Amino acid sequence: MSERPDAGDAFPTNTLETPDGGSVSIKDFTGKPAVVFFYPKDNTPGCTNEAKDFTALKEEFDKAGVAILGVSKDPPKSHVKFIEKQGLTIALASDTPADSGKDGLAEALGIWVEKNMYGRTYMGMERTTYLVAADGTISQLWRKVKVKGHAEAVLEAAKAL
């Protein structure tokens, strides 16, 4: 794995699958700032709260001209259920599964990391958010995100772009 991209670096252009069978890449947002938030798993408490917080502020992000994209390793079918169950209005995308033999976007960003829970070691998503400027560079990033108040903090940073 290469060095983890930081503020000022180009955001990787990996293509991700959307719940409707389409695809999305940061290149699709060229000319417009975007928030790309990575979360571990659909329908888990922290991830649900984070997605609902961004959904609640979507209109404010829209007014600021900033796109929002939530990304996890869950398959598109899981995202469809997550969107329906939680009433989400933000866009979600599926990163390439880690066992596919291809590196996904999370790997390119260095946020697919070894985790430890109850003595068990496994690979998982480090909750991270990127504010990507209109030119495709990382304007700001938040690592190891704590969900409470996070979407509001990202909105304030996005408005300042």
Automatic annotation (TrEMBL):
<keyword id="KW-0560">Oxidoreductase</keyword>
<dbReference type="InterPro" id="IPR000866">
    <property type="entry name" value="AhpC/TSA"/>
</dbReference>
<dbReference type="GO" id="GO:0008379">
    <property type="term" value="F:thioredoxin peroxidase activity"/>
</dbReference>
<dbReference type="GO" id="GO:0034599">
    <property type="term" value="P:cellular response to oxidative stress"/>
</dbReference>
<comment type="similarity">
    <text>Belongs to the peroxiredoxin family. BCP/PrxQ subfamily.</text>
</comment>
<dbReference type="Pfam" id="PF00578">
    <property type="entry name" value="AhpC-TSA"/>
</dbReference>
<feature type="active site" description="Cysteine sulfenic acid (-SOH) intermediate; for peroxidase activity">
    <location>
        <position position="47"/>
    </location>
</feature>
<keyword id="KW-0676">Redox-active center</keyword>
<feature type="region of interest" description="Disordered">
    <location>
        <begin position="1"/>
        <end position="24"/>
    </location>
</feature>
<comment type="subunit">
    <text>Monomer.</text>
</comment>
<keyword id="KW-0575">Peroxidase</keyword>
<keyword id="KW-0049">Antioxidant</keyword>
<comment type="function">
    <text>Thiol-specific peroxidase that catalyzes the reduction of hydrogen peroxide and organic hydroperoxides to water and alcohols, respectively. Plays a role in cell protection against oxidative stress by detoxifying peroxides and as sensor of hydrogen peroxide-mediated signaling events.</text>
</comment>
<feature type="domain" description="Thioredoxin">
    <location>
        <begin position="5"/>
        <end position="161"/>
    </location>
</feature>
<dbReference type="InterPro" id="IPR036249">
    <property type="entry name" value="Thioredoxin-like_sf"/>
</dbReference>
<dbReference type="InterPro" id="IPR050924">
    <property type="entry name" value="Peroxiredoxin_BCP/PrxQ"/>
</dbReference>
<dbReference type="GO" id="GO:0045454">
    <property type="term" value="P:cell redox homeostasis"/>
</dbReference>
<dbReference type="GO" id="GO:0005737">
    <property type="term" value="C:cytoplasm"/>
</dbReference>
<protein>
    <recommendedName>
        <fullName>thioredoxin-dependent peroxiredoxin</fullName>
        <ecNumber>1.11.1.24</ecNumber>
    </recommendedName>
</protein>
<keyword id="KW-1015">Disulfide bond</keyword>
<dbReference type="InterPro" id="IPR013766">
    <property type="entry name" value="Thioredoxin_domain"/>
</dbReference>
<dbReference type="InterPro" id="IPR024706">
    <property type="entry name" value="Peroxiredoxin_AhpC-typ"/>
</dbReference>
